Amino acid sequence: MKIPSNMSEQEVIDVITRVSEKLSNKFTFAFYTSEDIEQEAFIMGMEGLDRYDEGKPLENFMFVHIANR
């Protein structure tokens, strides 16, 4: 996991959690609960940190990255 140089680990976790919570309600389906989707979205966000360009806002990157997956 690559932590952006201008942020702490907790700030990164907070951003990914916030985006995951926003998106989880939009993508619930079948027998999955919003909590299940939120956990999966969080993992996708953590994996996406390796492709993050620090010149752009992390929240915008995470929203697009998670929503596209």
Low-confidence segments, given as residue ranges, are: none
Largest pleated sheet: none
Helical amount: 55-70%
Ends apart, CA distance between termini: 18 Å
Topology:
Layout: H1 9-24, H2 34-48, H3 58-68
Task: Walk me through the structure.
By secondary structure, this protein is mostly helical. 61% of the residues lie in helices and 0% in strands. It contains three helices and no strands. It has helices spanning 9-24, 34-48, 58-68. Helix 1 (9-24) packs across helix 2 and helix 1 (9-24) crosses helix 3. The longest helix is centred in the first third of the chain and has 16 residues, at 9-24. The chain is elongated and about 40 Å long. The protein starts with 8 loop residues before the first helix and ends with a helix. The model has no long low-confidence stretch (mean pLDDT 89).
Offer a concise description of the structure.
Helices cover 61% and strands 0% of the residues. The protein contains 3 helices and no strands.
Salient structural properties:
69 residues, 0% strand, mainly alpha, 61% helix, single chain, elongated
